Amino acid sequence: MIKTLTCQALVAxxxxxxxxxxxxxxxxKRLGNIAFLVVDGVYNTELTAPLDVxxxxxFHSKDDWPETFLVSPDGKPVRSFEGLVITPDHSFSTAPxxxxxxVPSAEHSMDTDLExxxxxxxxxxxGRNARFIVSLCDGAFVLAKAGLLDGVQATTFPSDQDxxxxxxxxxxxxxxxxxxxxxxxxxxxxGSKSFDVAFWLVxxxxxxxxxxxxxxxxxxxxxxxxxxHLAGKAGAGPR
Length: 239
Hints:
With 239 residues, the protein is an alpha/beta fold.
């Protein structure tokens, strides 16, 4: 005899199937793997400020926190501009898949780093495949040279903005803001403002409560409404 299931029975059976661990859909990662590019002459603040904020997500979000790590071209230690010796976690060849690429400013971000073809190729390929790209200060020069800012609203260190605009006429340079959120690409003027763009990315992905919690831990009174920024192509409008 063939048994006919009622509508209610079908709904109940479907609910049981969806609740099964074997059939449940995996939760998507929010920020996933966040790679910080470190090269000789990297500036401390542009590296450590966003690293502090993004690494602290794990203490304020119950799940889906990001994994943060440092990547240098050859995996060997680099020396920051201020003299810190930094040991990276990976080289270009050993780095895992990268969801967020962070490019801090370095001493030679406006000159010899731009002529390093291995560096440029890695930034270009990694940036194209990443979900988000973030630059701090003159790290924007590296992104622009790699072709990742063509037609994109972006900013950089205030006193270098004229040079940036002249060197990369395809970039829509924004002045007078702490950071620009152009959707996939977020750029910051750097310095102490390097915190702002990281807090904003956390708020955008995890919500204001998580961002504010991290702020309390770092003794930063985070409130994006008080920060001059542009979030045009991301949909939030200029602020």
